[in-house]
């Protein structure tokens, strides 16, 4: 039996991931580190840690288990500035990953983004690429990075730009040879995270676009 650690459990993918982990017999303990409650209750399996991501010294020692799932993220609109978004999407995730690695957690699964590149001109792609580059250097036994395209699924807040992007990517994916560009439902990405964690091959593996679907046989 395994212990799963999760940051970003209240987002689109994280919510699906948590629900799936709660019904996954491979894991007998799930520790969620979050700023607000997930709303789920399972006294025998789920333990929520309400934490301040700006005060990592208070909780990073508790990042101990078999795998850290990281799906934390925000939008530029929600964050208010690139600097604030970078803090959530890069700093919080990298610091948690580094702490887990120091604590001997053997596996790390990260949701990144298609087009992630530390040398990219676009801020978002560059930020995601920098995170990928830096977590790959951490002393995990296994690192799994998933790079899905546009995410689809129910969200608590309206994202007009994302809705438009989902429609456009769905239409674009109908063209010959472009099926991998279809929207990525949060449920499928969460399944892919669990499948990636189940791969015990040592080293780093990055799943891009269509390969994310292949993780779950879609």
TrEMBL record:
<keyword id="KW-0472">Membrane</keyword>
<dbReference type="GO" id="GO:0016020">
    <property type="term" value="C:membrane"/>
</dbReference>
<protein>
    <submittedName>
        <fullName>NAD-dependent epimerase/dehydratase family protein</fullName>
    </submittedName>
</protein>
<dbReference type="InterPro" id="IPR036291">
    <property type="entry name" value="NAD(P)-bd_dom_sf"/>
</dbReference>
<dbReference type="InterPro" id="IPR001509">
    <property type="entry name" value="Epimerase_deHydtase"/>
</dbReference>
<dbReference type="Pfam" id="PF01370">
    <property type="entry name" value="Epimerase"/>
</dbReference>
<feature type="domain" description="NAD-dependent epimerase/dehydratase">
    <location>
        <begin position="4"/>
        <end position="115"/>
    </location>
</feature>
């Amino acid at each position: 039996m395994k212990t799963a650690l999760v940051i970003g459990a209240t987002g689109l993918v994280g919510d699906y991931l948590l629900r799936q982990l709660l019904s996954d017999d491979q894991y007998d303990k799930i520790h969620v580190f979050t700023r607000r409650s997930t709303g789920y209750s399972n006294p025998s399996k789920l333990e929520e840690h309400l934490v301040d991501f700006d005060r990592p010294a208070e909780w990073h020692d508790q990042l101990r288990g078999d795998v850290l799932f990281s799906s934390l993220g925000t939008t530029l609109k929600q964050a208010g500035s690139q600097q604030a978004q970078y803090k959530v999407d890069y700093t919080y995730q990298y610091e948690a990953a580094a702490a887990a690695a120091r604590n001997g957690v053997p596996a790390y699964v990260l949701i990144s983004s298609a087009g992630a590149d530390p040398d990219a001109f676009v801020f978002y792609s560059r930020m995601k690429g920098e995170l990928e580059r830096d977590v790959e250097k951490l002393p995990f036994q296994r690192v799994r990075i998933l790079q899905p395209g546009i995410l689809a699924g129910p969200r608590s807040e309206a994202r007009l730009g994302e809705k438009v992007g989902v429609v456009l990517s769905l239409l674009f994916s109908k063209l010959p040879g472009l099926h991998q560009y279809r929207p990525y439902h949060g449920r499928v990405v969460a399944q892919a995270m669990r499948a990636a964690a189940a791969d015990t091959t040592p080293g780093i593996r990055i799943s891009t676009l269509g390969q994310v679907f292949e993780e779950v046989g879609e």
